[in-house]
Structures are given as structure tokens and as C-alpha cells.
Amino acid sequence: MTFGADLAGKRILITGASSGLGAHFAALCASQGARVAIAARRLERLESMVPDLMKLGAADVRTIELDVSDGAAIHACRAEAVEAFGGLDVLVNNAGIAREGAALDQRAEDFDAVMDVNLRGVWLMAISCGRHWRDTGEPGNIINIASILGERVSAGVASYAVSKAAVVQMTKALALELSRHKIRVNALAPGYVETDINRGFFETEPGRKMISRIPMRRLGELSDLDGPFTLLASDASSYMTGAIIPVDGGHLVSSL
Ligand code: NAD
């Protein structure tokens, strides 16, 4: 029994798909026979991913150049994905950045950059897809990639935490408004997942200390996200909207 947890044939658009979680989600969707549109700024990198995604079993793969801080590009990206697949089933709002450092040392430009990508980009993409689904009457499904830093705080990533808290609230607010259009909006809130970018930090003393505060005493692996992602992207979650699902080894419930 699969409880509808199947992405075969689904038309899925993933932003920030050229690395990390986004590239992993693309491979996961491909391996289940989905049609995947991978969007990011680095088109060459996206194109180099296509043969592997096809080999994994994707029913179709499209690459789309996208800077989510550019509203016109967001609209064009959504239109291109819809045109390529004759519609769209799932939007994965994954692109995100962090500007690390003490809040008092951050420049206004750093704050703006984080908000442009993590908040405004996610909002504009959701609205563009939402309007498409409302106007066509087709059901829609949005998965926002939030973070446990949207619910709790850690020093040195204040603007990132603020942006992710806004994504959590956006997920709930849009779930409420878009349900009447058969559009579901949920979020995954990953804890610390080991990627190329953070591996060095977790080999340092502060990094090891952080791991010791995770109740499960280990970092997340990309594959830990597979089940929760597939749940949200598939019909297995057909009665879920406005949910924020932590995937964090218990980090959110660590002792104060
Ligand atoms: P990453 O840097 O590997 O991936 C981020 C992706 O977003 C990249 O492909 C990057 O090119 C893209 N991106 C950045 N700015 C963009 C822009 N203006 N337009 C289009 N694409 C842009 O990092 P990641 O860890 O894979 O992060 C993916 C998502 O997961 C982010 O939203 C991040 O906040 C979230 N997240 C990551 C972790 C973790 O531990 N890695 C934990 C919680 C949440």
C-alpha cells in the first residue's frame, strides 16, 4: 500500500535546484517518474544535471534560468514550466540564502538580499503559481522550504531566521486563502542537513557542540527529507494544508 505517495507523472517546478536540497529534490522526483522543471541562476549547471535526472527515471526534465529576486523572471519561469508540461502540479519554493554575522554588523544591503530571495522570491513565486491555478481551475500544491530557524533562533543568522519565520507565517496565511481554489500550501522545516556548504563548520568544535544538542545526536542527511517531501508533494497529503513539518532529529524540542 502506498497511500498515494507517488510522484509518477507529476509536473513539479523546483527553484534553486542547481545544488544542495534543491538538486536532491529534483533527483528524488525524477526517480519517481515525475516531470521536473529545475530552475536556478546557473543554467549550465542545471543542464549538466539533465542526463542523470533522465537516467533516474524522470518522465521529462526542463531547465529554466531564474533569479528569484527578479519578479519578471519569476513570472516567465512559471509560464515556461506550464507551457512545457501543459500545466503544473507542484511548486517547490526552495531557493534560499543566508548572510552570516552579528546582527549589528549587517548592512541594510545584506538584510535586503536575504529578504529578496527568502521572502519576496517565495511570495512572488507562490502568487504567480496561485493565480495560474485559480485561473485554470486546476488544483495546486506549494511546498515552501522553511527552516527550524523560522521557529527558534541562533546567533549569527538573524536576518535568515527572520525571513524563515515569515515563510512559516506565509505558509499558513496562504493555506487559509488558497484552499478555496484547491491549492494546498505546506512547508518543510529542515534542521541542520549536511551539505557541501556546511560540512566544514560541523568538523569544528562549535559545530560538534551543536550536533551534541540535537536530541538524535546527528546531522540530517539529504535522504532524511525524502519521506516528508514525498508526503507533501504527493496525494498522500491531500487533506493537509498550512502544516509546517520539522525534519530535524528533534532539534526543535531540544532542552532550553
Ligand atoms: P544551497 O546554497 O546549496 O542551495 C540554495 C539554492 O538556492 C542554490 O541552488 C542557489 O543557487 C539558489 N539560489 C540562491 N539565490 C537564488 C536566486 N536569487 N535565484 C534563484 N536561485 C537562487 O543551500 P541548501 O542548503 O540546499 O538550501 C536550500 C533551501 O533549504 C534554502 O531555502 C535553505 O534556507 C533551506 N534549508 C537548508 C538547511 C540546511 O541545513 N542545508 C536547513 C534548513 C533549511
Topology:
Layout: E1 11-15, H1 20-31, E2 35-40, H2 43-56, E3 60-65, H3 71-85, E4 90-93, H4 108-136, E5 140-145, H5 158-178, E6 183-190, H6 205-212, H7 226-233, E7 244-247
Parallel strand pairs: 1-2, 1-4, 2-3, 4-5, 5-6, 6-7
The chain binds nicotinamide-adenine-dinucleotide (NAD).
Arithmetic mean pLDDT: 96
Helix count from the secondary structure assignment = 7
Beta-sheet strand percentage? Answer: 15-25%
Output the helix-strand order: EHEHEHEHEHEHHE
Please mark out the parts with pLDDT under 50 across 5 or more consecutive residues, or reply none.
none
What percent of residues adopt helix (DSSP H or I)? 40-55%
As a whole number of angstroms, the C-alpha radius of gyration is: 18 Å
Total number of beta strands: 7
| Largest sheet strand order | 3-2-1-4-5-6-7
What structural class do you assign from the helix and strand content? Answer: alpha/beta
Q: What would you call the shape?
A: globular
Largest sheet: 7 strands, parallel
Bound molecules: nicotinamide-adenine-dinucleotide
* Gap from first CA to last CA: 40 Å
Oligomer: single chain
